[in-house]
Amino acid sequence: MACTEEEFTELLSGEVYIDMDKLVAISRHGIPEKVRAEVWKYLLGISKTDKSEEERVKKQQQQDYKEIDKNDSEITKRIRAHLKRYQNYTRSDSRIKIDFQSVEIRNKFENIIISYINYNNDIEYSFGMLAILGPFIATLQSESDIFFCYVAMMKRIEENLQIESLTSKLSRFMMYFRSVLPELFSHFEEEEVSSNDWATSWIQNYLSCELPIECVLRLWDTYLSAQLGLDLHVFVSLAILTNFSEELLELEHSEILAFLQHLPGIDMDQIIAQAYNIRDDIRANNEL
């Protein structure tokens, strides 16, 4: 059961230190919108639990971010083109919106991605970088806070992929899909719906494009705090397919892809609970 904003505020207002065990425990059930930015910074290790260190660390982060080169005309062009594509994924009926008309917001996307690439010299720019950044732009205000949270999230994603590659994750997801939802899997085959046209983005970008932004934020509350973390994502994806299977069975090729690329709003608490149940069922059948 989700905790109230007051319970989070009380925990965050500790004068000496933040009890991370408690913060992690209450965050996995969802974080209230007004405190999400502050909580995410603790969950990602950007804010220090020792309050005496907080101000010093924040000033150092701001200075470090300021010193990173944010100029690259070639990447800027690509980001601007991809922002139009990313904007097409977002919808006007979302409760939480990213103002793509705002020069300040567009500058944040450009500055942070270019800073991230210059911060990690061996990294190539891709659309996925922008997709993962979107939820942080929607949640936090300070550009340096967004940057360091983004760096921490990308590190978690990279470490997760070192344990299991994207190709392996996709293969396992499709195997589970065939096992858990054989009728829907067959329907996708009959309609010649390729996993490359939807599943790759679902798994690689953690549904940051396909779900309404408020659903992504609720989902990521759990990814940042639950013990399974990002490993839960494959099962969340299966839970979403399960939830929409009846609708999807009625659709044809192009309609299926349009649906999968722009998912409706959904009760993420229910989806997350269902994801754990699906994982337990798969484990019980010795398929994990």
From TrEMBL:
Coiled coil: none annotated. Pfam families: RabGAP-TBC. InterPro entries: Rab-GAP-TBC_dom (IPR000195), Rab-GAP_TBC_sf (IPR035969). Gene3D superfamilies: putative rabgap domain of human tbc1 domain family member 14 like domains, Ypt/Rab-GAP domain of gyp1p, domain 1, Ypt/Rab-GAP domain of gyp1p, domain 3. PROSITE patterns: TBC_RABGAP. Residues 30-227 form the Rab-GAP TBC domain. One of its GO terms (molecular function) is GTPase activator activity. It comes from the Eukaryota. This is Rab-GAP TBC domain-containing protein.
